[in-house]
Description:
single chain, alpha/beta, seven-stranded mixed sheet, four-stranded antiparallel sheet, 14 helices, 13 strands, 41% helix, globular, binds pyridoxal-5'-phosphate
Amino acid sequence: MDSETAATTHEILERLNGLRELDPPTHGGRVLSYVYDPGIAGLDELITGATTAFLPVNGLDPTTFGSVAVLERDIIAFARQLTNGDEDVVGSVTSGGTESCLLAVKSAREVWRAAHGEAGAPTLVAPTTAHAAFHKGCEYFGLTMSAVDVDPETGTVPAGALLARVDDLIAAGNPPALVVLSAPNYPIGTIDDVETIAPAMAERGIPVHVDACVGGFVLPFYPQEPPAWDFRVRGVRSISLDAHKYGYAPKGASVVLYRGREHHQAQYFACVEWPGYPVVNPTMLGSRSATALAAAWAVINRLGIAGYRNAVERIAGATDHLTRTLVGLPGLRIVGEPFGPLIAVTSEPGPDAVDPFNFIDALKDRGFLAQAQPAFGNLPRSAHLTLTPVTADVIDDLTAAITAAAEAVRGKPAPRGNLGIVKQIAAQGLPEDLAEVMATLEALPPEVAPGALVQVLAGLIDPEGALP
Ligand SMILES: Cc1ncc(COP(=O)(O)O)c(C=O)c1O
């Protein structure tokens, strides 16, 4: 980009559209993570219209921009309906799942501090499968993460193990500020035992957050009843659910709900200790775009309950089909007992083993992108697959590609860590096939891996770097 001379609108848009060619396709079901495509005709036009209408609005101040409060209230009411919340349930629209999770942690910390004093460092207890956003929340808000291993067979945390962890903390005089459960978790798609754990926490006075960032817009519509996960369960204090995942809104919209207005208000930041306007921020940002809010509102109104139900029917059909294919493939197995719509596969040890990282590279050669997940705790390395309604449109291609990819790498040795690859990345960037890179990352000690990742990612946006 030459910043000395102004470019024309045509040139700018041409450049932007050209850059989009660097990306994998965001529609059509070929990318099995990050994007959630309902395959509904006209939805992009609706989103463009809603976004355009709200481009100049500042979501910072609903007392000035009354439209923002109306949209937000409507989305919260819809989310409350999905989670079976009563009139005691309120919340906020946030910029995404991470922000919703961060705010639930902040609220829990404020409530804990009010009871136990400002000075303490409270603990957050969660299964290892809880999203990394909760580690981030602990880092940002000064909590200590206490992660409990899941049972590698079922993929869910044994309720007794989690209760024992909490009871140990209570006995040590440091009751946790929050217990986090997932419905479902991202890595392997299993739903935690909310029904047993949340009421047990209520008896101990410990709040439970259910992270339904993935499940909130799908679990209410499954043909088979999911395990209990919402506000009907005693002890569930807060829930996060993402409009920009299975709500099919563009990125930038999630909801965090609380049972109890005081718990919602504990997430706010308000400040009058400066000479400017009184600041009241419900979420992490100050000025905020209202475009994602308007787009989410538009998509929710366009789909309605019937649209979401129909989308889930398509996902559930594709999941059944895919599961049957995976179960029939030697050398691969599904991790735990996922409910859907997320599945992780790993290798079945033996001469026919299909290493998941090799499998992901082979699947990419056949036009589908799965996500590599390094081994952690007692869970093996795996390939993550997010299924969306359009997966149903490409299910035959997908199962054929999966079968062929597994065949291509069956019995091929699993890649191991190779520190030489770090030098290679520094000199030449990331290679096409990532199996060895992921294996190297997996082998790095946890105190080294984050720094290495940050260096690679920061390099991507470094003006001194070489990019197209
Ligand atoms: C269960 C769960 N929680 C939280 C998040 C974080 O959401 P986001 O990426 O929108 O910040 C994700 C993202 O995949 C998720 O799957």
